[in-house]
Hints:
Layout: H1 4-14, E1 36-40, H2 42-45, E2 51-52, H3 54-57, H4 61-68, E3 90-91, E4 100-102, E5 105-107, E6 112-114, E7 117-119, E8 138-140, H5 148-151, H6 169-173, H7 176-179, E9 193-197
Parallel strand pairs: 1-8, 1-9
Antiparallel strand pairs: 2-3, 4-7, 5-6
Amino acid sequence: MSALIPVLxxxxxxxxxxxxxxxxxxxxxxxxxxxxxxLGNSLTAGFMDGGLIMSGQMSSFPLLIARQMGLDTSxxxxxxxxxxxxxxxxxxxxxTDPAHVAGVLHFNGTGLDVLGETPLASxxxxxxxxxxxxxxxxxxxxxxxxxxxxxxxxxxSSHGASLGRPNAFFNFINRAAFFGxxxxxNPMLQPTMLTAGIAKGAPPPR
Length: 206
């Protein structure tokens, strides 16, 4: 047995070289796609304090991944963008006025309170990247169901609509009114890397 040890060591050393690996061939052409895209619901979107607000979105796990990848995450112009929401955010609480949208929750010193409300007519003022000319790379939609990943592109086509609770988050995240119904030619469907996760999410905004 001891006589075989030098032979085994010689074979092992012969198999270890410092040669450069062969260049990979046959790779998919991703020049028209995006480096990274995320699909999901609340966790993916950076849902925090009962809604979407920039302070929570800045901690979304897809954004953290994008930064580790060295991608530019500048608002509206980066390689990885998100549908950011300014204060007071867009929450899921019932507003005091049906013509308003409630913001996220915050601790007021004694308990939880809504950070503020925004008139529906002024909602676009909270969305700094609303007119970004390309789809967002983070397409996490709070309250999205698994079936929504393939079928939903606005509130009316969301799974919640069939239950009488259309998910309004789709309207400003997927922006069907801006891009129309997604199709197979959309370069956003050709990311180099994709993360997708659907868990039991938050309800849509009221």
